[in-house]
Design brief:
Blueprint lengths: L8 E5 L44 E5 L5 H31 L3 H25 L10 H10 L9 H20 L1 E2 L2 E2 H11 L3 H36 L5 H5 L7 H34 L1 H4 L5 E2 L15 H4 L11 H6 L4 H14 L7 H6 L15 E4 L5 E4 L6 H19 L13 H15 L2 H6 L10 H33 L8 H13 L1 E2 L15 H4 L5 H21 L13 H13 L5 H9 L7 H6 L1 H11 L9
Parallel strand pairs: 5-8
Antiparallel strand pairs: 1-2, 3-4, 6-7
Helix pairs in contact: 1-2, 4-6, 5-6, 8-17, 8-24, 12-14, 14-15, 14-21, 15-20, 17-18, 17-20, 20-21, 21-22
Length: 637
């Protein structure tokens, strides 16, 4: 090994790696980085993990960084070391998320410290390989992916402060109550089922006062620390860092997202016009108002991101049944385990493996007795095919779909497990969210639900089709502007285009502009309604969900074509192994290829495109054109 100048040194912990090996006998990594816990605190920084520095004994190794063999050894070290430490970190995170005790929080902080003392050296020394054009395409991709693990302050005190701050905000959210009622299932249940205007207003406002206000008091400091971390790692602000992980420039990514929003806006406007008209019929114009907007608390969901719970008000043909399998799930004595088994059976019908034993032994499928836990559903990959789900399962149609979504994460994890460590992730974060959502589109096909016994009768009719499409649109289309605007707001916050004094005002301006909804109450000076959403409190980037809602329809259309089924709104790929294999082969790639190549492998397209959404909902779109004709819709027009 040749000697180099001091600028070419990199630091490695002495106990970790034998540089005499060329790597042929190194075991393929099997762990997953903490950033891959899809909904938990380690993905809070858009791929970054808080670095809590501690002192360690290190060995200075001289390496010629211009020699491709040395970058090979460096990357082997990175993947081996992070894999070794990832298991204990994730176990600590799991214990905290399933039991929100102070003791478990301290153990989690300790595990973070141990893990991240290595990561700080890795990130610092990766800069020595910045002239990546001389390396192989695989090495270049790994080095570029490694950059996504930065984004936190270099100062150790600021690192600890940011870590603790986010833990506090997530704790406020997870422990929040209104009149002694927790969010899940109590408050969410009221928002879904009540049709009492004042009761809904009390719960909606109470939740924002309980969690949004105290989180808002911490958010300005959070923004400051996030931006310090981004700037310490070469980005203008944290928003630019979040936008940097998509195999294109941040400007190209923002432009692409805007293009997709423009594609689906006309369909959303049609849906908004119809829903507002029906709500006026139900509640009266005095409650809805004449400004064209919809009061946010009347849409059946705490955040107005899914309107399907008020299908009883919105059903186009009230005397014709529509899909809701909740009653049948209860009649058939489904419990949490049985619902997860039903989801697994769908994936198995595509030729996929059953979930590993660890899933059934270690998952948290119900809220634990006597403990506070993070009920927000999430999928976890601990490496070595140790796959788990954490959720407080409710026996209803909504959670049945959530289960298929979360298992989609796990099947992605399962099939890319043989990739090198840095490639064990989705092609982009939207891909990871889209896998289970693609399956949902087949699961909710009424013929499929009839075949598996969750619908006891089904006869096709045009009226039934419109009812079913409305039910689906109230979930999928209603979400799109919400998925789009959360990070639009945060990007503006991080770039200081929105000042702390205007956080809440600009939040509602964006919600009015993109969603056409309004706050039902006068906002106080200390209101911070963005903090009433988990992903804001927990610092989880949200644009991935918007992307996933585009991708799932692109994937579904192509898989239906492979299955020989049309139209796509009547397609289910259940039991079609040809379609399953196409999807599976893409899953196996993980992050080893740019997402454009992974998309092309399934769809033949290299760009995200919302045309498949428009095709899927074409019957409903035509029906809405006729039904809305002559209606006054100030926001939509």
């Amino acid at each position: 090994m040749s000697a180099t100048s001091s600028e070419d040194l990199f630091l490695l912990e002495s106990s970790s790696f034998d540089f005499s090996s060329e790597g042929d006998d190194i075991m393929a990594p099997t762990g997953s980085l903490s950033q891959r816990l899809y909904e938990n605190r380690f993905k809070l920084f858009g791929g970054a993990v808080i670095i809590l520095l501690t002192m360690s004994i290190i060995l200075i190794v001289t390496v010629d960084i211009h020699n491709s063999k040395d970058v090979t050894k460096f990357l082997l070290y990175v993947e081996e070391k992070l894999e070794m430490m990832d298991k204990s970190l994730q176990e600590a995170a799991w214990k905290y998320n399933t039991d929100l005790s102070d003791e478990n929080l301290q153990k989690l902080i300790d595990a973070e410290s141990e893990y991240n003392q290595e990561l700080v050296y890795i990130l610092a020394n990766a800069k020595g390989f910045s002239n990546i054009d001389q390396y192989t395409p695989e090495q270049q991709r790994k080095l570029n992916l490694l950059k996504q693990y930065g984004g936190v302050p270099l100062d150790s005190e600021k690192q600890a402060e940011l870590s603790e701050l986010i833990s506090e905000m997530e704790g406020i959210y997870s422990k929040g109550t209104v009149d002694g009622k927790y969010l899940d299932p109590d408050l969410e249940g009221i928002m879904a089922k009540s049709r009492d205007y004042n009761e809904l207003l009390q719960v909606w406002s109470g939740w924002r006062n309980a969690v949004g206000v105290p989180i808002g008091k911490k958010f300005e400091l959070y923004v400051e620390l996030m931006n310090i971390g981004a700037q310490d790692n070469g980005f203008d602000d944290a928003g630019k860092f979040w936008k940097s992980g998509y195999d294109m420039t941040t400007e190209e990514f923002a432009t692409d997202i805007d293009r997709l929003w423009t594609q689906i806006l006309p369909l959303y406007k049609k849906l908004h016009c119809y829903v507002r008209t029906k709500l006026i019929e139900h509640y009266g114009v005095d409650k809805i108002g004449e400004d064209g907007l919809i009061p946010a608390h009347l849409l059946g969901n705490m955040w107005a991101q899914d309107w399907s719970n008020i299908i009883d008000i919105l059903k186009p043909y009230p005397d014709v049944s529509s899909i809701d399998v909740t009653d049948q799930l209860e009649k058939d004595n489904y419990n949490a385990v049985k619902m997860h088994e039903l989801s697994q059976e769908f994936y198995e019908s595509l030729g996929y493996d059953p979930l590993p034993d660890s899933f059934w032994k270690k998952s948290m499928l119900e809220k634990p007795d006597g403990k506070e836990a993070v009920c927000h559903a999430s999928a976890w990959d601990f490496g070595n095919d140790d796959l788990r789900i954490k959720m407080c399962t409710k026996i209803n149609q909504e959670d049945l779909l959530v289960i298929h979504h979360e298992q989609g994460h796990l099947y992605y994890d399962h099939y890319y497990k043989n990739q090198p460590y840095l490639f064990r992730n989705g092609a982009n974060d939207g891909f990871h969210e889209s896998i289970g959502d693609t399956i949902q589109l087949s699961v909710m096909n009424p013929s499929h639900l009839y075949d598996i016994g969750l619908l006891k009768e089904y006869t096709f009719s045009e009226e039934r089709l419109i009812n079913d499409q409305m039910q689906m649109a109230l979930t999928k289309i209603s979400f799109l502007p919400f998925g789009y605007l959360i990070d639009q707001w945060r990007w503006l916050v991080f770039s200081n285009e929105i000042s702390p004094d205007n956080y809440n005002q600009k939040w509602w301006e964006l919600r009015e502009t993109y969603q056409g909804i309004k706050s039902p109450v006068q906002q106080d000076t200390d209101s911070f309604d963005a903090g009433a959403k988990y992903h804001v409190a927990a610092s989880v980037p949200y644009m991935r969900y918007f992307i996933a809602h585009i991708l799932q329809f692109q994937f579904h259309r192509s898989l239906c074509e492979e299955a020989g089924q049309s139209p796509i709104y009547q397609c289910s790929i259940y039991e079609n192994t040809d379609a399953g294999n196409i999807f599976k082969n893409m899953l196996k790639n993980g992050a080893s290829k740019p997402w454009q190549e992974s998309l092309s492998a399934v769809t033949g397209q290299t760009v995200m495109d919302a045309e498949a959404i428009k095709e899927y909902f074409s019957p409903l779109s035509n029906w809405l054109d006729e039904h809305n004709s002559g209606k006054t819709c100030p926001w939509s027009d």
